[in-house]
Automatic annotation (TrEMBL):
Highest taxon above the source species: Eukaryota
Organism: Cyprideis torosa
GO cellular component: nucleus
Taxonomic classification: Eukaryota, Metazoa, Ecdysozoa, Arthropoda, Crustacea
InterPro entries recorded: DDR_Repair_Kinase, Kinase-like_dom_sf, PI3/4_kinase_cat_sf
Protein name: Uncharacterized protein
Alphabetized GO MF terms: protein serine/threonine kinase activity
Transmembrane segments: none
Amino acid sequence: MDQLCTFVMQCRGSSVLSPTEVDGGRGSDCGLSSQGTRGMDELYPRGLFRRSCEVVMSLMREHAKTLLILLETLVYDPLVDWTPAAHQVSFASAAHGGRGLTEQVQRRQRLQRDLTWDMLAVRIKEIATGWAKNKELVSSLLPELRSSLSDLRSKVVRLKAVDDEKQARLKETLMLREAEYQPSHPLYTYSCFRHIKESILECKALIRRELQSAAELSNMHRVVLTASENVVAQIDGWLVTVPSNKFCVAPESMERILEYLQTSGQQHLVQQVLVGRSRSHRLLLRGVGRVRSVRA
């Protein structure tokens, strides 16, 4: 059917109710290029529209199974709403008078809703086994993935180290190439470099020896500090136990000793005991005072 002829007939007040054959001579350039000289006739050259239709039909026949699967998926897909829109329902009710159309639409919607839920339940049951297998497969592959990632990480670290070494070697190569073309290059002064390197090594050895001696002195200091802390603790205990205003010997014992010496007629020993007691008491007080002054 030629669109140009249809437009001309509509302009004259007539209409075309069904596709009408149009002579090739009356067809427009668009119609001739799309359908050919005689439309879909086998005896005449084919147009662009016919060739495209043949290609489409051949592809559809070749992939018929895939198309059927896609159509079934779209028809039974619960996420696709196939119910008519509100404006379509209003147009249909206006055209048919609205007699029972609303109830029919509601009945169809309920049926489609129930069918959708049933298909969803069936689909969930169908994919449950697959998801369980997928879970087992993923659980079994996770340790392998972890080991692969750890291996990849170690390889990346080694690759980075190799890359750094490569960059260092490239710098050395560039230095050697510069030295080849420059007789006065600093690289030729190897003796100076050797002397500086030996000096650096000697300094490092000296620093190591000093560090070792410092560590030994630190250990000795820790030992002395520990011993001094023990001595200080003993002195504190001694200061607590020794009285500051009287001799450590009990007065009752001293009186008994003096009485025994007097009764035995040893007056000179009594005087010596009293003198020794006072002298020892003074020495004790002097030592306690010195210790307390040192502690303070």
